[in-house]
Specification:
This protein is an alpha/beta fold. Strands 4-1-9-10-11 form a five-stranded parallel β-sheet, sandwiched between helices. The chain has a four-stranded mixed β-sheet with strand order 3-2-7-8.
Amino acid sequence: MSNPVICIGSSLIDELFHAKDEMMLATTNEVSVTKTAGGVSRNIAHQLSLLNVPVQLISVFGNDSDGNWLKHICKHAGVNLDASITKEGLSGKYTGILNADGSLFSAFLTNAVTHLITPEHLEQHKDLLKTASYLLADANINVDTSDWLLAFSNKTGIPFILEPVSVTPAKKYKGANLEGLHLITPNEDELPVMCSEKAFFTQQQIEELLERGVENIWLHNGKHGSALYNREKSITLRAPAIQVVDCTGAGDGSLSGFILGKILKKDELNCLKLAHTLSAEILQVNGAIATHLNQQKLLQLVSKYYPD
């Protein structure tokens, strides 16, 4: 496993407000607050490193105390930052408001500045990118940057994965070139906004993305599980029944588990089981990372959630 997974996208401070009771509008709500390292690409890189997968993170950090703290967290976890950017000013922040059951009430993203990860910046680090086993980007990057990555992937044969993140960044990819994209990972809210209005039903949306050249579509349906589609087949897997503490980072964790499965040469169903297992573990802790797991522990836990 000497070739790294290279993750391109956001690194953020996650400031999470946990409601003690049902959220009420236009009045004061009693909450507790936690601060953790976040950002989709950073989360995935961090989790993969804890699972003994070599990683490089190409992201943007402010030159403030938060940026220094984020970089320290990454380096301590074994995440390499050789092609990351440090800019003047504040680091990005994700502020999430969580319902009492751990689900997301609302969230705010400020100062992510992933637009600084340009095609020109990636071109300067082309030799590093050529060493990747997988290229992964979150949809916070600009479309011209993902276009560059897709062209690079098609030229080199290195699989490229795109994580839509949320509805707003996913909308940018409605008309984008996706020919040759190895994997895209929308949830049930993100999938429709990436497709035309003619594709009204889920199956039509899946078919449209396949027609646009996406090789694999992994649709996340929350507590109902997920489904993986390609031109040959579709595979579905239920989600484990658990008590949710914090929903932050569950999708990032599931993708980390899936990539680990692919690197370990597991079939698609067992990749999904690894993904759901890691996601379930993250949902039961505060923060976006399952710091209590290594690769061996994760592999052993699959039978707990899928005893068949």
